[in-house]
Amino acid sequence: MRINKLPLEVIKLIAAGEVIDSLTAVVKELVENSLDAQAKRIVITIYPELWMVQVADNGTGISALHLSNAPLAHTTSKISSCQDLNNIQTLGFRGEALHSISQLAELTIASRIKGDCGYQWHENKNITPCALAEGTIITVNNLFHNIPLRRQANPPFKQQIKQIQILIGEFALCHPQVTWQLLINDKLSLHINGKNQADHILLQLLKSINYTDLKAQKFSINNFSEDHNSQLEIVLGLPDRLSRPRPDWVKIGVNGRVIKSPELESAIFSSFHRTLPRDRFPVVFVHLHISPRHIDWNRHPTKREIYLHNLDFWQQQIKESIEQIFTISEQTISNQRVEKLLTVAENKPIYQIEKKENTASLGLIELKVIAQSRHTYIIAEHSEGIWLIEQHIAHERIIYEQLLKQWEFIPLSQPQIFEHFSPRQVEHLDYLGFDIDSFGEGLWALRNMPQLLHSRDDMTEAVWELARGADLDSAKVAVACRSALRNGTPLTISEMQNLVDQWKITRNPHTCPHGRPIYLSLEESSLYRFFRRHWVLGKSHGIN
Ligand code: ADP
Ligand code: MG
Hints:
By secondary structure, the chain is α+β, with helices and mostly antiparallel strands. It is built from 17 helices and 24 strands.
């Protein structure tokens, strides 16, 4: 590949800037170059006290002819004209990183392309042959030796190393096929084995989780106005099994790089709304593979923030896809990671998308209620096992989703009279939809009631609870909780069947609106293992 100097008019269009401000920034730039060179194995070695970073890869390498061009300002093999800026297929394109690094540190580049021997470049020295496998080794020594202030501005090494580990984890998720090693002072600090899919990477990064806690699915999104088919890849932790105390595992990748996008993050959070306990956050990795024409990377020098065309379209796609993953399907049971390519319905003019036939094959499972236990658990059977469903919270989920669709009040034949409401409580009940007016000194008349509370004995308590000032959504949760069947209530098989049938088609059947899990599954495959049914009969009977 030729490394050429960019024309001046291209240089002017690039959001240039000082990007090398830390060891992490050096690692980021070098790793991006390795990924652009199609490396499948990347080894990062750091000696923090020496301010030294080395990145070795098995990528395509740099030819001897172009080796000395690489560290010059604005030289790149990745773009050559203004038009190319609209179609960036690589992580790098500004031709600045190696140059900036060479101004701040001692830089050595050793590289070998196929069919040649290795060569090494070092500032002020001739290019010399060297022994090297195919690929590139870039060594950055004594970083910021000429600007001690920048060293001081960096956090302690421990923190910098943590940042670097996070950074590598993010690249690994975006490039699951790559094997990574991070060595700090010769000690292995991180090792990630290359796999086919991002969920396998996530399992290596978050050691405490199980494969069955995750769901991964790819959605292909046709965009008829383009030759390019977009893909939305989602890996998420099922909310009944996995959550975090901080929002540190909500990651969004766009074409190979994790970015910051408050808009897309809020789409993810809203998809998990009312599925997790209070103050818990989901584990989600969303990766958009989209036409480079829809991205402008020139928003920020680190490319961490971008401009994305049709942001609201992508927000919607993310929400719909997560919703789709949540529904209980055949896949939930078999836990097969079939990569179903689903197209999602959408009728915006530029994105004409049709639902494909195979959506239907996600058919809902047949759950046959067979008994009730302790007047609390519904026992249901399906072809692959048995589920225990807690009746109260399953019902709560159904009601909550009904209330989301319809928050309906009906008039009371007799107004309910209340005493001692504060002006704030009155105002709040009015906001929730109650028809409330003064009924004389310190008295208030309530003339309507949420439909579900209408004929309940505890209607008065419910109104006091709602007057406390929670927002509308919390009011819906409170009403759902209050009107859901209590545990301890005996139910007939057909009542339970009815409940289970309604519950399994809710948008999020996994958890109640407070985030508690609703069902426990005992799959035949695990029962088989538990009862050691795989043992040879003779052996377990002591007969050889
Ligand atoms: P950019 O990545 O924006 O092109 P850089 O300064 O990071 O600019 O790199 C300059 C050029 O050096 C790249 O365009 C690429 O051709 C070459 N290069 C750098 N690192 C590697 C690597 N690890 N493997 C192959 N080529 C590399
Ligand atoms: Mg680069």
